[in-house]
Prior knowledge:
Layout: H1 17-35, E1 40-41, H2 43-51, H3 58-73, E2 79-82, E3 86-91, E4 96-102, H4 103-106, E5 116-119
Parallel strand pairs: 1-4, 2-5
Antiparallel strand pairs: 2-3, 3-4
Pfam families: Flagellar_put (PF12611)
Protein name: Flagellar operon protein
InterPro entries: Flagellar_put
Amino acid sequence: MVVQRVPLQPTMPLPPKTAHKTAKTLFSAHLEQASTKQLKLSKHASERLQERQINITANEWHNVSDKVQEASLKGVKNPLVLMEQAALIISAKNSTVITAMDRMEAKEQIFTNIDGTIVL
């Protein structure tokens, strides 16, 4: 007579360690990408920047992007970003510049549908 014991809990084979590392690496990469989300330009904003001859350096874009992310963490969804040479309205949710204008033009405007302001 042969007696076999049946385990009380079903056992499943453990995934190979490389699969666990890969998942962890993919998560880390996704987290890093999310935290360094770059701003995109809408077609409208791109046209406005060209029409108004507004030049923003890569360093300035990086600074704007960082501040928009910071504002987003505080619950701001549509900030107005006031820079030395331009005013930008940005969708923090989509990381997209909605529109742009130079500072002289911005002085004469009423801004609606914004819920925060970033002054650089």
